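Lecture notes, unit on protein representations.

Consider one protein chain, 456 amino acids long.
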Amino acid sequence: MNYEPSHHLPVGRRIVSREARVAVVGLGYVGLPLALTAHDAGFDVTGVDLDPERVARIMQGAQVISYLAPDRISGAVASGRFRATQDNAALSEADVILICVPTPLTPDQEPDMRFVSAAARQIAPHLRQGQLVVLESSVWPGATSTLVRPLLEAGGLTAGRDFFLGFSPEREDPGNKTFDTHNIPKVVGADDPQSRELIEEFYRAIITRAVPVSSSATAEAVKLVENSFRTVNIALVNELKVALDAMGVDIWEVIDAAATKPFGFMPFYPGPGIGGACIPVSPAYLSWRAADVGSATPLIDLARHSNDSVPALLAARIAAGLVARTRATASDPQTPLTGQRILLVGIAYKRDVEDTRRSPALVLLEQLENLGAEVDYHDPFFPRLPAGGEFPALAGRQSVPLTPETLERYAAIAVITDHSAPDYQLIASHAALIFDSRNVFARQGITVSDDRLIKV
């Protein structure tokens, strides 16, 4: 195969001149910010999404992701260079197609590639010579070449010759005010030099730095390694929290002191468990693929199991603390919280985002109710829990307001997700008992007497 530098190819020249048309398949927490970033860099962008309501709201300029600037979507739509559609025909007009669809887990905790496969099949009838296709969804090493490539080549075109294909793992951190899509370095990989150069050229045009690696599989592995690293360290710090608490030592103070070491230590902080679409999922993809090739990841598997057990352990600690502090007794030893009312503050999986995917707070809510408690929640991002998702039985539940009268009706308040909006001083002033899983009161300098505050 003759090698021609990427900037000599028509799509390469169009990328450099900002004349390339970009299509983003999937307008969720990854695809929409990426599409807007490409628009901001001067490209004409079309987002393709299956959800008609989301498409309509985007075209109306609605702020469908809370942490984006209020006018960012409306401004992009008004420019005439950004649009959302359900029409797959837009894919045939694009020079660059970016796939940003979910990659969850099956009920058996194995990779669920339905959405990636569907996206590839969605693109295939519209694929034409010279297009660049990049998968961003988190997948196991080898998925781009062995799963996506054959689906795209089904129409007769060949990757690396007729069209170009590669992988670049998304690194979105929802709600991060320092790092966003534009300034987070982008790893790019492909299995032929022209595809790799084109992908690098495109991302260099919209993001501050592109980091090329030797293959799609290498780039796919980068994302899994990043999140497996976090998974193992989160499991470690949650284990240390329980052990040090038994010794009468404050884990938060220990971490702050250890973090002053300028080398060899990276601070991780305990919490109620892990959630979201990345950290709980990526290690499972890596573990599955390792087993598939005859290897194993026992340390990662142990960390996953440890993290999955945190909400149940937290429920037990809350139950023990509440029973001890209120001198409560129960006729049924299996339901120690019968008759107790608990308010959870925050049910999103992380601070200041409207996302409950795999949220440990919802697992905890169910665990506490299994122990007999009556559980409500307050979360400014969820006035009402939507239908669908992983906890259909919780659909329709409504957030209760934080008022002195409301707070005083509960035996305990448990801070699970430390959103910025709640008035923690109000909670400190009116809660009978507080369980703090995020050290939020100490961080905000709010004093609560030892007999009313339990760090969990």
